[in-house]
Write a structure and sequence with these properties.
By secondary structure, the protein is mainly alpha-helical. It has one domain. The protein contains five helices and no strands. Helix 4 crosses helix 5. The longest helix is centred in the C-terminal third of the chain and has 15 residues. The protein is globular and about 40 Å long.
Length: 72
């Protein structure tokens, strides 16, 4: 995986939301605003994907940086 969004090319977001016990609407919001992920949810998400916690944190951080609006 090279980006946060690629995760959902492999595993449907509805499956991840269900497995994490997160409402699908709330999970969609978290995907669009990954800064809202709690560390607890991030660690559970990484375990579900069977990747190192820091790999997922790095992907989320990169997505947060990409989502930032450029300053005028």
């Amino acid at each position: 995986m090279h980006s946060f969004g690629e995760i959902f090319d492999i595993v449907p977001k509805s499956v991840v939301a269900r497995d994490l016990g997160i409402n699908n609407m709330r999970f969609s919001k978290l995907i669009n605003q990954p800064a809202l992920f709690s560390l607890k949810d991030t660690f559970r998400f990484a375990a579900l994907l069977e990747v190192d916690d820091m790999v997922l944190i790095s992907l989320i951080y990169s997505q947060i940086q990409a989502n930032k609006k450029p300053k005028k």
